[in-house]
UniProtKB/TrEMBL annotation:
<dbReference type="InterPro" id="IPR000089">
    <property type="entry name" value="Biotin_lipoyl"/>
</dbReference>
<keyword id="KW-0092">Biotin</keyword>
<feature type="domain" description="Lipoyl-binding">
    <location>
        <begin position="1"/>
        <end position="70"/>
    </location>
</feature>
<protein>
    <submittedName>
        <fullName>Biotin/lipoyl attachment protein</fullName>
    </submittedName>
</protein>
<dbReference type="Pfam" id="PF00364">
    <property type="entry name" value="Biotin_lipoyl"/>
</dbReference>
<dbReference type="InterPro" id="IPR011053">
    <property type="entry name" value="Single_hybrid_motif"/>
</dbReference>
<dbReference type="InterPro" id="IPR050709">
    <property type="entry name" value="Biotin_Carboxyl_Carrier/Decarb"/>
</dbReference>
């Protein structure tokens, strides 16, 4: 399964995509907040989003799956 995993721990500040959306490599899909800084998380490759596994306000750890691709 193609997954996008978090490279750091933080709180989900925004979710910029939904299931079914087409994304391109480099597109911001989620913004995390850590130590009062907003850090964009970008798609490593393009594809169709199958499932978004995080919600605004969730705390995620490094290595947690943010979303999956078809």
């Amino acid at each position: 399964m193609n997954e996008l995993k978090s490279t750091m721990a933080g709180t989900v500040f925004t979710v910029d995509v939904n299931a079914g959306d087409e994304v391109t490599a480099g597109q911001t899909v989620v913004v995390l907040e850590s130590m009062k800084m907003e850090i964009p998380v970008e798609a490593e490759k393009g594809g169709k989003v199958k499932e978004v596994r995080v919600n605004i306000g969730d705390f995620i750890n490094e290595g947690d799956t943010i979303l999956t691709f078809e």
